[in-house]
Specification:
146 residues; seven-stranded mixed β-sheet
């Protein structure tokens, strides 16, 4: 697996990435994330690619001046294709964002998630994120010390 920036060559497979049924209620589609990243200069987005296949998409935000501490270095979106789930794609993507945070001199990252059956909370907890008790935009916040 490797990371790739979004380009005209991988745009269509990126926006065509499909989740398992029911997961779409927990994460926005990639096309929405791309639009948000386009108008957010502090956004950091990458695709996870293996061979020529787009397996996943991650978008973070590195905004050290944000008024909300939990949003200064945060995973905004993580989408892993239904066919690639369970293969370490999500972990690879989160590790890559954590590496970028370290490169920027940061000591932690956060993520937010909606709780519910089939949601991503267990995934983030297994990666070592610790719930802070905060809720932002109706989602729980977790922090990972790097």
């Amino acid at each position: 697996m490797r990371l790739a920036e979004l380009s005209r060559h991988n745009l269509l497979p990126a926006v065509s990435l499909s989740l398992k049924p029911g997961q779409e209620k927990f994460v926005d589609p990639v096309v929405s994330s791309i639009a948000e990243a386009f108008v957010t200069p502090t956004a950091w987005s990458r695709l996870v690619i293996e061979d020529d296949d787009v397996l996943g998409f991650i978008m973070g935000n590195f905004d050290p001046g944000n008024d909300v501490a939990a949003l200064r270095a945060v995973i905004w979106r993580l989408n892993v294709s239904a066919q690639a789930q369970g293969r370490g794609v999500g972990r690879f993507a989160v590790d890559a964002l954590a590496d970028e945070a370290r490169r920027r001199g940061l000591v932690s990252i956060t993520s937010t998630w909606e709780r519910g059956d089939g949601g991503p909370e267990g995934f983030y907890l297994r990666l070592g994120f610790v719930p802070t008790g905060e809720v932002i935009h109706g989602e729980s916040v977790g922090v990972l010390t790097l």
